[in-house]
Amino acid sequence: MAAMYRPDPANPAARRPRLAVILLVAFFALQLLVFLAFRGAPSPGAPGSAVAHVPESPGRGGDDSGCAGGLVYVYDLPPVFNEDLLSMCDKLAPQYSLCPYLANDGLGFPAKGANLSEFLLPAELVGSWYSSDQFALEHIVHRRLLSHRCRTADPGRATAFFVPFYAGLAVGRHLWAANATDADRDRDCVALLSWLHAQPYYKRSHGWDHFIALGRIRGDFRRSPDGGWGGSFLLMPGLANTTRLVIERDPWDAMDVGIPYPTSFHPRTAAGVRAWQQYALSRPRPTLFAFAGAPRSAIKGDFRALLLEECQAAGEGCGALDCGEGKCIKQNELVMQLFLGARFCLQPRGDSFTRRSLFDCMVAGAVPVLFWRRSAYRQYGWYVPVGNDHEGEWSVFIDRDELRARNVSIRGVLGAIPEAKVQQMRKRVVEMIPNLVYSAAGKEGLGDGMKDAVDVMIDGMLRRVAEQRRSWRL
Ligand SMILES: *[C@@H]1O[C@H](CO)[C@@H](O)[C@H](O)[C@H]1NC(C)=O
Ligand SMILES: *[C@@H]1O[C@H](CO)[C@@H](O)[C@H](O)[C@H]1NC(C)=O
Ligand SMILES: *[C@@H]1O[C@H](CO)[C@@H](O)[C@H](O)[C@H]1NC(C)=O
Ligand SMILES: *[C@@H]1O[C@H](CO)[C@@H](O)[C@H](O)[C@H]1NC(C)=O
After folding, report:
1. Model pTM?
2. DSSP 39
3. How buried is 58 (Cβ within 10 angstroms: 0-12 exposed, 13-18 middle, 19+ buried)?
4. Which of 290, 286, 426, 421 is nearest to 346 (CA)?
5. Locate the Exostosin GT47 domain: which residues (predicted)?
6. Which of 90-99, 148-157, 192-201 has the lowest mean pLDDT?
7. 182 lines ligand 2 (CB under 6 A)
8. How many other CB atoms are found less than 10 A from the CB of residue 44?
9. Strand 367-370 to strand 396-397: parallel, antiparallel, or no bridges (unpaired)?
10. Would you say 303 and 347 are in contact if contact means Cβ atoms under 8 Å apart?
11. What is the DSSP-derived secondary structure letter of residue 259?
12. pLDDT of residue 113
């Protein structure tokens, strides 16, 4: 993760006055949202909305039925851009070996802690939990696309083109090396772009129908021109027309699209997902709110330290888990246990604006509480309903400046939400679970028309290619 703290330029601490007005407006907005949620208002940008365009080479018939929106071609890259990186898995990160996490096609080793046994009770969920790491995302998406029913081996029939370069792994191995230069961190990226630019289907569209998936946050690929942290892949002119699906996007870059962090849940069938949804909905939730994370003592006035204080003050109303030393990945069942017992979970920014914990929270069926708009609303528009009318359906936003400046407690704000509303929000979150997880299903997918994160990704990419076609076919 990026070891840097950057102030959020979009959110200056300049919104103090008129608290009463803001609270009043927020209250009525919440009422309206809940009203809309009860009516089941559809959300425009939400996953599952119809793919508007008819491709030139519709992939109808045969194996790829159900892919009327178009087919995806997956490039067969020279192994130096992906497979070779997997084989040096013990050298990719400084703190720990990534090998166990890259096993099982990137899902990681199967989880089998004693605490997990209760999750495994429904027979449909056996083999659905792993110890997954966000850095394996590139591998996870690649494998899933290779076996996807909408994949075609014939580029002539494809609408979208996936470039399975593991850019996060490539830059990751140089991020902490004291002797690594800027050129070291960019070398693989430069080589990839020169390979890609020579491909006939790239030349045809100048890359506008191409996409890539990245398992590290934006800052790791956007080194400032003055030097410093990270590689510069996402700033390279050669990548300008390629869509980047990334776990944390740059809100000012229209070529970045946010995709979910991988959680540890990788169901195989729609029945498995439904069993989990049922379980998550029916769990008793004695705790009002929970927080999994570690305070960053190095950061002055760290917001997370303040949340931990609030949590302690709330006594039994709050549960906290210290994620130091990779505990929340290695023993993810502890996180799930915590969130399964809570109605809300707090999602402050950490080293960066986004956190995997948001997805752990929602998969556990708890309602996320956000403090920065960039933590979700400006990230995952393909996956969660966003826009002012929809965010309140599934999340609570608390202005962190108000929290700091006034005598407002998180317990006070969350405790004041009527139980019926909490139930409604939790139901909405649980409905969204399938779209947020990377399934371990094969060619047939989860089945029953249920879409996982990669299905949503393909739909979104096909819509985007249709929209962008004018950029290269004037
Ligand atoms: C089970 O959870 C408890 C805390 O709830 C923890 O102390 C214990 O180490 C966990 N056991 C395993 C095997 O992970
Ligand atoms: C950096 O140092 C390591 C040993 O600490 C060495 O293996 C590696 O080759 C060096 N890299 C460069 C680019 O000099
Ligand atoms: C991006 O697309 C434009 C045309 O829309 C083209 O002129 C330009 O060369 C392309 N850039 C790259 C890196 O392919
Ligand atoms: C803050 O509110 C609590 C009750 O909600 C009250 O006991 C306390 O005195 C207040 N503190 C200040 C500084 O107003």
Report:
1. 0.82
2. H
3. middle
4. 290
5. 67-410
6. 90-99
7. no
8. 12
9. parallel
10. no
11. -
12. 55
